[in-house]
Design goal:
By secondary structure, this protein is of the alpha+beta class. It is built from two helices and eight strands. It has two domains: about 80 residues, Helix Hairpins (Orthogonal Bundle); about 80 residues, Immunoglobulin-like, CATH 2.60.40. It is about 35% helix and about 20% strand. The strands form two sheets. Strands 3-2-1-4-7 form a five-stranded mixed β-sheet, with no helix packed on it. The chain has a three-stranded antiparallel β-sheet with strand order 6-5-8, with no helix packed on it. A hairpin with a 2-residue loop joins strand 1 and strand 2. Helix 1 packs antiparallel against helix 2. The longest helix is centred in the first third of the chain and has 32 residues.
């Protein structure tokens, strides 16, 4: 079993995993830094300006233009970075390469079936080549399902009477968990 994952993410075994992980860690570390800064400053100011003795009126300072610009511009820049990075990753995930190997996937209570172009099929086990883009054309026979392979960072909802498409490219040989992450009835687990 591969143990190269981190505390937050499982091991990465697809071409898109690095992009997804990079965005995740950028958001995580930025959020932790901002959280620590806000909590630290709040504690500092609560201690420094706690009430002691007589109440005294403060001066008539209404606002600080430089500070207002700072706390407007910095978050706007961070949001734009996350938006652009996220949009590029979203497009990579959703635009299937034209030379992808297509597999028909059908979700139903309580298993997945896979139909290969050569006529073969399998149940609850998908077999794919390494370093070749794989296009999954998915549908459901009954209720909403959600196809999820954590090591590939691929997850797609599968709806009845509709086709969903996703793709991935495995970068290493191995056995990887496949889950349905949508509660699909009493026998789901």
């Amino acid at each position: 079993m591969d143990t190269t994952g981190t505390f937050w993410m499982p091991p990465s075994h697809s071409t898109i995993a690095g992009d997804v992980d990079g965005l995740f860690y950028f958001i995580l570390y930025t959020s932790v830094i901002i959280f620590a800064l806000v909590v630290g400053l709040s504690a500092y100011f609560a201690f420094k300006y706690r009430r002691r003795g007589e109440a005294v009126k403060t001066d008539g300072l209404d606002h600080n233009v430089k500070l207002e610009i700072f706390w407007t511009v910095i978050p706007t820049i961070l949001v734009m970075i996350v938006f652009v990075w996220g949009f590029k990753t979203y497009m990579k995930i959703n635009v299937v390469p034209k030379d992808a190997y297509e597999i028909k996937v059908t979700g139903q209570k309580w298993f997945w079936s896979f139909d290969y172009p050569e006529g073969g099929n399998s149940i609850n086990e998908i077999v794919v080549p390494v370093d070749k883009p794989i296009k999954l054309l998915m549908d459901s026979k009954d209720v909403i399902h959600s196809f999820f392979v954590p090591d590939f960072r691929v997850k797609m909802d599968v709806l009845p009477n509709r086709y969903s498409i996703t793709w991935f490219e495995a970068t290493s040989v191995g056995e990887f968990n496949l889950f349905c992450t949508e509660f699909c009835g009493k026998g789901h687990s």
